[in-house]
Amino acid sequence: xxxxxxSTVIRSLLSSKVRRILFxxxxxxxxxCNNSQINKLVLVVHGVGDPEPGETLTRFARSIADEAKPLExxxxxxxxxxxxxxxxxxxxxxxxxxRVQFKDELLQMVEVFWGDQSRVRKGFIGAVLGMFQILxxxxxxAYVAADQIGNPCGWLKQLGLISSRILHGPVLxxxxxxxxxxxxxxxxxxxxHGSYKGVLWTQIVLGGCCCVGLLTSAIGWQLTSxxxxxxFWFWVSVTCLFVAGVMLAKSLLIDAxxxxxxxxxxxxxxxxxxxxxxxxxxxxxxxxxxxVLLATAYSWLLSVLQxxxxxxxxxxxxxxxxLAVGIWGQTLPMIWLSTKKGINSFAELPEFSSVFDEAIPxxxxxxxxxISIAITAAIVVIRxxxxxxxxxxxxxxxxxxxxxxxxxxSLQYVLAASTAVGVILVLTLGFIQLGGSNYQDYFFGRLxxxxxxxxxxxxxxxxxxxxxxxxxxxxxxxxxxxIVNHFYFRPTNIQDALDDDDEFDINETTFESGRLFxxxxxxxxxxxxxxxxxxxDELTHRPGLVIVSxxxxxxxxxxxxxxxxxxxxxxxxxxxxxxxxxxxxxHVYQHYFNHVYPRLNQPxxxxxxxxxxxxxxxxxxxxxxxxxxxxxxxxxxxxxxRGSLQQVAMYSNHPVGPRGHQSYWSxxxxxxxLQHELFDCKDANASHxxxxxx
Length: 694
Known about the structure:
This protein is α/β, with parallel strands linked by helices and about 700 residues long. The chain contains 22 helices and 12 strands.
């Protein structure tokens, strides 16, 4: 009986609290055992495109795993905290992870997802918004490109900012208000014929337009997180107040003192008079913009003549503001031409049409410049595809990598020449009109007016064609937007330093230039760092670390490994291997921004060389973004505890067949290289490394 009683009590205890404690201890032991079995922590950093969270990890895991074995472990998510790139708002991001068995090794694979920080949305509206993001963001790239030593370089970068602020501030704000006023003119004419000429009705409608503009500005200010867009809404408010001031001045001065002139043709009747005022204001702003662009060209010339400046970057610093001015200078008149045609189909407003006929005398010349640029770009693309049709692994040579698609030199020359022609024409026309003459009194002016007729015929259908092609330009938009967001910055302040009391400090995690904080770049890199920190705290042993990255994601990985804040990686992981696929490091960043990204043998990259045991670069021979990396021929050496020199890194380039820039993650040739280099070569160590790039 006593034995039965004792066994009953023991079973009762074990069925409750003791059983739960033993179960959790057993579970913890299993987890610790599983952690100790992990041979490699593999971080997957996606690149250009529009992947969903976890999509790249699933694709790569299925490609790298044994074909005979299914993926048994389900994909899980770890939620980690992060700061918003443009505010102090704390949010979370998802780190998808799973375990994959490859031969006799267990891999813990984790995705570093950053597509939500830099993405062109799907569909036509997404493509339009992506194009606007790029146009508004080119100023950041131009600023960093011109951020070099010397006063002319300082003038160049500041003038580029001024040009952008005029263009994306008052120019677009006045255009926006003019669009509101145009809708009001059409609406009032459709309701009551000729009502737009009435003095009282004009004041009521104009006051309503000002209220709509101010309300829209207030709402837009609250919804946006971009400083450039905020500046645009500020200028919309200023434009509304300016129009309200003009309305009061006209009522109190002109109409009160000269009532007989209120409806004369010389000052335009009613609302059309205010349309003319805004168009004249737009003309003055464009004239100032051209003068700024002329000063930018002068600063660029002086900068190029300066010693110790990197010329390709200076070209970027000048041509990008010129390109933005050219695109808006072509787009806005085309929109107004389409608007004028549309309004004429609803109502007869000859005064309204004549306003815009006078406002766009250079449209034909702009069309010719655009055609020249388009023809040059088409020739470059055709040359690339001809080269691509002939290239193969058998006849490929890294010394002849094919035509450069990203800002080809010939395209730079044509863009610079078109800019010069446009600036000269605008200045000539401006001085003619300031002298009190009509530009059509001269042969030169009549030629411009005649070219406008052909421009009107061509540009409107061309605008419709471009609208249809926008969604198909998404791959190009994705690449350009990644570069724009890479250089997106905002000023730092004392509050930033006070808020950064965690492990990662913004002063060390970004390539800072004075007061600039590359917030979006830092936010993306911070995700990779926080994932590494999470697994550093979870693992109880020292597995190997492998970072596999593609396209712009390679820059995230490279810069993170070059960060001194991650110096603890050496003590956490037994080895560190970096894999880059289609990286723009050499072909884009080191080519155009060598003053920011120097050669890999420079002291700037010393932390990267110390951290990385192996660097495997895979690229397709026709990749227009990522090509061969110019690795240093000499080994990086370090002094060990005994005072002897030791080789610590191996660099290797691996070209594969021509299949473009995307879909590296499921390319069987690429996967074969990774399987061999990462998991089959187990005897590779620092003393046996050979430099395949030499």
